[in-house]
Amino acid sequence: GPDVAKLAELVATYRPKLFFTQSVGHNPTATDTSAAKAHRILQLADAHDLIIVEDDALADLRPRSLTRIATLDQL
User: Fold this and answer.
1) Rounded-to-integer distance, Cα 18 and Cα 2, Å
2) 62: number of Cβ within 10 Å
3) Is the pLDDT reported for residue 75 higher than 60?
4) pTM
5) What DSSP state is assigned to residue 57?
6) What is the torsion angle, in degrees rounded to the nearest 10, for the CA atoms of residue 54, residue 58, residue 59 and residue 62?
């Protein structure tokens, strides 16, 4: 998953309105965002009024038990 410390720094500096991510089966790295990182991303989004777009195009190829940001946010 993303480097959440760097993400926090960038969000505080640039104040983006949108964060686009692939939390499950990221392309091209094939990595998955851990539950702890997904939770931290949600905290950053809440604190900075940041919209998260979670595009898990390859999620069907991964186990359903993997954490998705939308699931943590109950969306």
Assistant:
1) 15
2) 14
3) no
4) 0.81
5) T
6) -140
d(CA 4, CA 31): 15
Instruction: Give buried/exposed letters for 21-41 (b at 16+ CB in 10 A, else e).
Output: bbbbbbeeeeebbeeebbbbb
Strand partners, 21: 54
Instruction: Report which of 67, 4, 3, 11 is spatially closest to residue 35, judged by C-alpha positions.
Output: 67
Contact yes or no for 37/4 (Cβ under 8 A): yes
Residue 13 CA to residue 25 CA, distance in Å, equals 28
**Pair of tokens at residue 43:** 């905290």
Average the pLDDT over 38-45 and give the result.
94
Token readout for 65 is 């038990």
Which ranges in 1-75 belong to alpha helices (H)? 4-14, 35-48, 69-72
